[in-house]
Amino acid sequence: MLTWRVPALTGVLGAAALTLGGWLLSPVGMWWALAAAVAVVAVLTGLDLLAAAPAGEVRLVRSGPRQVRLGESAEVTLTVTNVSLRMLRALVRDAWVPSAGAAQPYAHVVQLEPGESADVVTTLTPTRRGDRPAARVTIRSYGPLGLAFRQTGRRRAAALTPPWTLTALPPFTSRRFLPEKLSRLRVIDGRTVARGRGQGTEFDSLREYVIGDDVRSIDWRGTARREHVVVKTWRPERDRRVLCVLDTGRTSAGRVGTVGGPGEPARPGEPRLDAAIDAALLLAALAAHADDRVDLLAVDTLVRANVSSSIRRSQLHRLTQALAGLTPALVETDFGRIVAEVLRVARKRSLVVLFTTLDAGALGEGLLPVLPQLVSRHTVLVAAVHDPSLEALAARRGGPADLHTAAAAERTLAELHRVRAALTRYNVQVVDAPVETFAGAVADRYLALKAAGRL
Hints:
Layout: H1 5-24, H2 27-51, E1 58-63, E2 67-69, E3 74-82, E4 88-96, E5 107-112, E6 117-124, E7 130-142, E8 149-151, H3 154-160, E9 165-169, H4 178-189, E10 201-208, H5 220-225, E11 230-236, E12 241-247, H6 272-289, E13 293-299, E14 303-307, H7 316-324, H8 335-345, E15 351-355, H9 360-367, H10 371-375, E16 379-385, H11 389-394, H12 400-425, E17 429-433, H13 438-451
Parallel strand pairs: 2-9, 12-13, 12-15, 15-16, 16-17
Antiparallel strand pairs: 1-3, 3-6, 4-5, 4-7, 7-8, 7-9, 10-11, 13-14
Helix pairs in contact: 1-2, 4-6, 4-13, 6-7, 6-13
């Protein structure tokens, strides 16, 4: 293939040939001079193409991280080795899918002697969660004069490209709340053994009575079997089960607005599913530190994710990987399927945290009819992200259009209150908080239930 230098050189030599031919030769000789100039350019171009190293005679190897959190950057290195016998003057383009967020420059110039290698570094900042694969590496090999080049074809480029996938994990921005929640956890069910029994405690062991112990904690049966008085000691509840259920239906795709400054309209925020994932990760990390078992389900009409093994501190990354590629499905959530899956997975009494929305249509027709089956066997917590733009729209009192908008917002808020009241009648815990404090509010409710011994 030809570069821009060929027509430029042809124009320069052709103009020179016409000018000199007009001075020294006849009009017919001018055309012969022009033809000679074109022939010279053609010969130079052909020789340049023959001197270019074969574009396909290279070895490509990738290295770098396989995972990165959403919002952070990672550098993936492509090592190019010239295995031909000619010097390689090439333009290397390492293409990725658009959502991988590859930074410019997209193409890199390399000059390699036979057997020499060079590193091409691509900085990736993914814009979406999930797997972001490399697309194709295209190599364009130029001749010494830069007049012509050879380029790998589609099939050859696909065969040369080393496979690589960068997984964009959830950002887990709520981890900033973790130190404060762990401090509260140590206060509520800390590492020390309690002398007296309180809410959220269970029997630990027997020990010898010492002066100052509560006489009500004396174990008379144990004392009868021993030669000294023994008392019962208690410890915080452990090894409880927490099941996080993520609603991945159509309502999880909605973006929750964030309110700007005074007088500013609400701006579209993050999707509800992303906020639910962030809150589920904080809850899982907190429960793992409390030695509780954490399971996860993501369901709409199908089960999208199922992590049924117990999540400990060393296994929290597995939960993060399971949530990385989770996306909303544009279907109506089947709450009957959700309840059936929960009853199948959670055989023992558990805390079921359902991350969904307080939509009157979805919950009223889908969840409320099947909720008694769930409440009879488990403690249920419904967690929903509150949209602050509703209050902002309800406060508008401008022209007729603003009044209609405010009336619609007030009606929506009234429906939310009715749904919350209906859930409360079933003894369901409800968390309805803005996205900024949503994860912390879910963790606080878990700590409150643990302190009360209701897990």
